[in-house]
Design a protein that fits this description.
The protein has 279 residues and is an alpha/beta fold. Helices cover 42% and strands 16% of the residues. Strand 1, helix 2 and strand 2 form a beta-alpha-beta unit.
Length: 279
């Protein structure tokens, strides 16, 4: 992923300030801890990597909206998005146990100063549990941007390597959605809205423009889309081979996402786009 880097806590506030100075309204944080275990304990630690980053950014750039990814995969030694149990040679992801840890993680992010938390794990019922936990602890104004329609996809590969979290056993298809099943996506979005999601997100972007449009039109909620690492990487590869001009290609891609109904676009080209479209 050319031009994409991991940042230490000492560096992240300055990077966020530069993004804000370019006119960006928000950043989305993912954390890579020093230590991983089978209970993702670093995910909800008071001084976890994301919690430190949120406090640092808010101290330097309080106007910038800080959104935090709420998932367990980066913090789990096995790389899955939830608590697992082995049954012989087979593993199972335990939904309810995972939801409990996700709610703890979201609460710790809110306590650190996050404006929105973004559960990306696709466990059932996690939006409702997070909303209830936040409200019960005085964080009723902390928003939830739910990865409501997150499809199992080959396009996540570069991010998984960069975030050091590929699954050690099996894959994530048991809890991420089948890309052939549009009706399931719409049901998942409806459930997340019912549970209290403020923003719903579709991921990946380009393979799911039809889903993005249907979600935006049917539900009328603020709708986000994530143009993911594999989509970024293949465009970069084509640019490096001289297939097309990067700026023209990226502007065309982003325009298609906006046209399809995206109110919010998450992209690795955010800083470049801000510079390219500045009046």
């Amino acid at each position: 992923m050319p031009g994409v880097f991991q940042f230490a806590v000492a560096e992240v506030a300055g990077e966020a300030q530069r993004a804000h100075d370019l006119g960006l309204q928000a950043v989305l944080l993912f954390g890579i801890p020093e230590d991983k275990d089978e209970l993702a304990s670093s995910a909800y630690a008071k001084n976890g990597i994301v919690q430190q980053a949120v406090r640092a950014i808010k101290a330097q750039c309080p106007e910038l909206v800080v959104i935090t990814d709420v998932c367990l995969c980066e913090y789990m030694s096995h790389g899955h998005c939830g608590v697992t149990r082995m049954d012989g040679e087979h593993f199972h992801v335990l939904n309810d146990e995972s939801v409990e840890l996700l709610a703890k993680t979201a609460l710790s992010h809110a306590a650190a100063g996050a404006d929105l938390v973004a559960p990306s794990d696709m466990m059932d019922g996690r939006v409702g549990a997070i909303r209830e936990t936040l409200d019960a602890n005085g964080f009723d104004q902390t928003g939830i941007m739910s990865y409501a329609a997150k499809f199992a996809s080959v396009f996540y590969g570069p991010f998984r390597e960069a975030a050091e979290n590929p699954p050690q056993v099996g894959d994530r298809r048991s809890y991420q959605m089948d890309s052939a099943n549009a009706q399931e996506a719409l049901r998942e979005v409806a459930l997340d809205i019912e549970e209290g999601a403020d923003i719903v997100l579709v991921k990946p972007a380009l393979p799911n423009l039809d889903i993005l449009w249907r979600v935006h039109e049917r539900f009328g909620k603020p709708t986000a889309v994530y143009h993911v690492s594999g989509e970024f990487a293949m465009t970069k590869a084509a640019v490096e081979k001289g297939v097309f001009d990067e700026r023209a290609a990226v502007l065309e891609i982003m325009t298609s996402l906006k046209r399809a109904g995206a109110d919010i676009i998450i992209t690795y080209w955010a800083k470049e786009l801000a510079a390219w479209t500045r009046p």
